[in-house]
Specification:
Blueprint lengths: L4 H52 L10 H13 L3 E6 L4 E4 H23 L6 E11 L2 E12 L5 H51 L14 H50 L7 H27 L8 E5 H11 L1 H6 L3 E6 L3 E5 H18 L5 E8 L3 E8 L33 H11 L3 E7 L3 E9 L4
Parallel strand pairs: 6-8
Antiparallel strand pairs: 1-2, 1-4, 3-4, 5-7, 8-9, 9-11, 10-11
Helix pairs in contact: 1-4, 4-5, 5-6, 6-10, 7-9, 9-10
Length: about 475
Amino acid sequence: MKYSLRTKLSLSYFSVVLISVLLISVITNLLLDKHFRDYIIENQERKNREIVFQVSQQYKADDKWDTEGIQNVCINALKQGMIIKVIDSSEKVIWDARLHDNDLCEQMLDHIAKNMSSRYPNWEGKYVEKSYPIASKLSKVGSVVIGYYGPYYLNDSDLAFINTINKLLLGVGAFSLVLSFLFGSVMAKKLSSPISRAITTAQMISKGYFDDRITEQSSTKETAQLIETINNLAETLENQEILRKRLTADVAHELRTPLANLQSHMEAMIDGIWKPDAERLKSCHEEIMRINRLVGDLEKLAKYESENLILAKTSFDISELIRHIIQSFENDFISKDIDVRFIGETEIVTADKDKISQAIVNLLSNSIKYTPQGGTVEVSVKGTQDAAEITVKDTGKGIPPEDLPHIFERFYRADKSRNRMTGGAGIGLTITKTIIDAHKGKIKVKSEVDKGTEFVITLPKQPG
């Protein structure tokens, strides 16, 4: 059977207090018994000697006993649970509590036995006697025999004190249990409510509703982290859903235009409206190439994002590689009158040369697309002991701040117009980041609208 977190927390508070109260009660009674027993035994001995002293005071200078005084002392002792017998030096009984009132003595012993049995069901006490000598002028004049229920006993006052302590513990325990139940219920509700809300939001997410957010606040660190994580998850999935829908629209748009052109060209040629000359076929070929490039980009993305991506790492000069790549774009730079600059010395890295080339090509291709006529593209390489830093900076139109967090996402394009002059399906930067991540590197971007964009790649020199 499964129980809610609120129920478990409430029960845990209740259980902890219950166990604590029981332990305190048991330990208190054990310690109380031990110390109280020691105290009673010591106190009994003290009372015995006090009675012996009082009886010795009843011996007069004329070698006679004050029997009336002895009787007062012994009757008072009887009330305290002690049976006294006074004997002179000739073994003659001067006063005996049993002879005085044997029924009272037996009643007293029975009462004490009942007190002890009520407290200790397995008590095995018995009647004991101790004899104390009485001396006068350094000679023994008699003795006092003190009988009591041993080895120790509890009178009515002692038993009432212990019962009061136990009642107090019971009252405190009951109050603590009620308080723990109330406090536990409040705390359990406070802790479980945000978690229950998080569960509801997670269930909504699992059903495809990503716009729900948890607004409850929690002072518990772990719960606050859970709420933040669920909200971030919902936001990420919502953004991914938007990207997925945008992907569908983008791919449909990218395919629709060349396919529509191909269809119209083919239908015109089939109907005899156009002749299938070289110019018409060349136009059809261009549209086919556009579709082919899109499919090629999709294949590259699938390949680079594969968990089985294998990197063929070799050691090479990253500066030399970039120089060759810049040379391959020379016609593009000249056609747009873009001033391209390269700054860097020899930096040897161990990486997959082809894939790093693809990443640099993607960045340079973007710079050419978005840098206006007469602009500047600057590429620099500088190294540290452990890494090479590659910077591609242009004076293009820049990226809006709201688009910067998303530019590495699949099929995301800051250019929503899908202008055929800029082209692309929006996966070049995704491929670039995937390649850099596979090399345990980092890529960062800084951009200002109408001022330009700067990409910085940090690539480890040695394989990770």
